[in-house]
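Handout, page 2. Input:
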Amino acid sequence: MSKPYLCRTGALAVTALLLAASLGAPAPVAVAASTGAVITVTTLATAAVDGACSFDEALAAVATQATADACAGDPSITTVDFAPGLTGQITLASDLTPITRPLLIDGGGRITVDGAGHQVLTSSSPDLEIDNLTITGGSGAHAGGLASTGTSTLQGVTFVDNAGADAGAVWSTGPLTVVSSHFTGNAGGSGAGAIASTGTLNVQGSTFSGNTGGGSGAIAQTGSSLVAYRTTFSGNSGTTAGAVRTVAATTTLAADLFTTNSGSSGGGAVHASGAGTVTISSSTFAANQALTANAVGGSIWNESGSMDLFNATITGGSADKNGGGVFNGGTLHLGNTIVAGNAVVHPGAGAGIQVAGTLATDTANIVVASTTGLLDPAGPADHGGPTKTIALPHGSPAIDAADTSVCGSPPVDNVDQRGLARDPGKCDVGAYERDNAPPSITVGPTTRPRAGASLTAAGIPILVTWAATDTGNSGLHHYRVETTADGTTWTTAVASATGLSATVYAASGSTTGVRVTPYDGEGNEGTPVAATAAVKPALMQQTYSGITYLKTWKTSTNTSFSGGTARWSAMAGASARITFTGRGAAVIMTRGPARGIVTIFVNGTKTAVVDLSAAAYQHRVVVWQKQWLTTRNLSIKLIVAGTAGRPRVDLDAFVELK
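Output:
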């Protein structure tokens, strides 16, 4: 049938799959490649015999294998797609025909199906895939969006404002894979606001926000297994769990973010019960709550069963009675986890504010009341990776404080929530691995006059270039470029260069030193490195007596010229030459309309041809520069080409680099 989503998403999906394997998440369900016929929907209308193929007619043709209006029925049909250019909303007048055969429905990211109070999709297909479609306004006995007893894959599907007795968006008793999909504002009854599942459920790279359920706000998993990987749960609310409820299921939550979810009776984010197992790793829980009377587990309520909680960050949670962060009534193994800054509103005798209940194992955790100095007060933010994380500030006690055997073993496998490598020798507590290795300058810095830039009152433009590396996981971020006139006092010239070059200005006749300091994404500062040779420019105006002019040159006066005057010529063969001892040179001229071409010779050798034409005037421009590693005798000569229709050139100055 359809291609597996791994093939459709290329290298990024390969990376995600490898990381999923390292974090205990199984491979996504793959479906066979499409080899059958395609029905193309050509209209947004429904329930009308009008010579076009509508979505409801297409599903009817698939089910009956008979032609429906302009939708040709055929036993080989495996795909329903939408005509190129067809964009908009399909509003249903009735429930759609149930899907019983293998089928791919591809909305192309352009189609919204509004159930208008009807059941949108019902399936018992052994292989249903829905791609790039928005489903809204559905309502059904089980779920408003999709009710499935078969095998289903959802990729790039958005479910908005659907409602059902068991789940708002999706109810499934068979295997279900959800990839890069979004669930918002769905409302479910006894099961969940978004998905209620009793078959295997694999969720990757998706978001659940603002869903409400009589059971769980986002996902309710009963029996079988659940994996949620690199997924964000935010602002969901339910009775028994704010985001995820599992009952007697094998559950893996990895690299996820749970924030601002609310479970009224307990489990602000996650509630586990029954004889199941739950593994949570490299995930962040922030500002979840369980605040109705006697509610427990502001973020997590492990009512029974076994739970492993490794390298997680749990903060800002609140419960009414007990366990502002975690409440455990089963078997809890806690390792390398931060539980801090959580609260209990009405604590009873012996209440645990951060963690309540007995721990089976307690390995290198940080369980404290305050997050000051421990966690970034900004809370969850984009620090790279598919889900937001809470950074560790410089000097946090979580840095290098983890048990390396926990970091190096499954499900953590020396990878943090963002998918970045942990330091195997001294990893950090919590979901976030801070980079403590400062970056370094590896080449340079080197300096030369910046071709194309103009002289300013600050001096001659000097291009500074360098190369750098960062061995940590946060990457190179920016550079500070400084100058000095005396080799001792350094002044910032460029505070935050983001590339590997910057422009500084050196005054004529002075000696200017340059150094560069690298910074990484964590703010670690590398060692400043200075250029091996200081910049010693001398600006020689065109009036300088050491310049030899041949043929006709005239003087032009303009405040835009360096020194207020320039020497110009329109005569082919006219030349200007300067000789000096130094290690570099530059030529300062005017670019503009009707300006011609000059040829530049160094010690008698043709070195460059410079075209001075430009749409607008640019004065005091470095039009050519060259430098050498050692000092030498130099003769710099420019010859006017006498370009037809634009022969004039304006010489402003030469620059000698000593």
